[in-house]
Amino acid sequence: MLELLSIGDLVEPGTYDFLNGFRHVINFTDGRRIVSLALPGVDPGPLTIVMRGFDPNAVKCVRVEPNAVFVDGVRVGFDDDDIYISSILLLRRDLREFRRNLALFGSFLVELAPAESLIFLLDRTEASAPRPGFQKNLTEHIRNCARDILYWNRQRGVSRLRGAGVGFTPAGDDFIAGFLMGLVTLERMGLGDWSDERDRVMEWTGLSGWDVLEVAFLSCAAGGFTFESMKELIVALDLGPADYVRSWTESLLAIGATSGADIGVGFYMTVREGMAGRLKGSPQTARVSWTVNEGEGLWS
User: Fold this and answer.
1) How far apart are CA 235 and CA 9, in angstroms?
2) C-alpha to C-alpha distance for 101 and 189, rounded to whole angstroms
């Protein structure tokens, strides 16, 4: 028996056909939009329907109506209580508390993130670890692109980082998503208006209508709409306490092989540099009187 547990607030009515499938998630598209059907245990998200009782190897079509989802013609109703609200929230916006919790988040990333992730951008030990030729070249490429995005030539950095790395969502795309969510968070803390810059970043990715999954993924990030672990982590940074920050960091890192970690690194570096007034385009009013110990990360 099918049971709907949550449906993302950006899921739109329509008929969606099978695009690709994995062990716990199936993606569907109408050629322009996407929707993901996920088993329990997968994070709720803006375009995700979490449902119990379906076979990921069998579903071919999903139809969404205002108060019902049809899975291969089988109707499952839902009401407003089932809608997952995906917008990034900041309740207190206490910059000092946020700063302390952000430093904790950075330390938890260094402690817990997998070595295969982009953690080398934060951890000098990982940055100096020996790597084979291809991996060494990719690491240097990503490092240069991240520097461009944060400080120098953002268009060049975004265009060169998009698609870099391995995995279903390449590490470069995950970093860009974290960067975009970082800009939204800075904006909602009152540290600049980044809306035009977010639009430009989307243009610089070079994504087209053929890349429906990547367009949806990065468009959600640019709009400040995100999955539960990321949303709750930002709430934890805003409100604390430390164990809440650690718990949601662990949840974020559990997403994919390295995707959660790579998003987290992009987000952390963006917000850290934005709060310090070092991020390219940061207004003078964004400067917060704090520093990061050089031993805690690159380019501090």
Assistant:
1) 19
2) 14
| CA–CA distance, 33 with 11 (Å, rounded to integer) | 9
pLDDT for position 294: 32
Q: Give residue 262's identity as a one-letter amino acid code.
A: D
Q: Please give the angle made by the CA atoms of 153, 263 and 165, to the nearest 5 degrees.
A: 70
The residue behind tokens 């690709």 is 20
Q: What pLDDT shows up at residue 235?
A: 96
Query: Which of 170, 180, 150 lies closest to 258, judged by CA?
Result: 170
| Identity of residue 114 | P
**In this predicted structure, what is the pLDDT of residue 187?**
95
Q: Which two tokens stand for residue 215?
A: 């367009």
Which residues have a Cβ under 8 Å from the Cβ of 4 and sit 6 or more positions away?
49, 50, 51, 69, 76, 77, 78, 82
pTM (2 decimals)?
0.91
Residue 290: pLDDT above 70? no
Give pLDDT, residue 254: 96
| Whole-angstrom distance, CA of residue 299 vs CA of residue 126 | 15
Percent of the chain's residues with pLDDT above 90: 79
The answer to whether the beta carbons of residues 2 and 52 sit under 8 Å apart is yes
What's the length of the chain? 300
**Mean pLDDT, range 250-267, rounded to an integer:** 96
Q: What angle do CA 97, 98, 103 make, to 5 degrees?
A: 100
Spell out where the chain has E strands: 3-8, 14-21, 25-29, 34-38, 48-52, 61-65, 68-71, 74-77, 83-84
3-class secondary structure, 87: strand
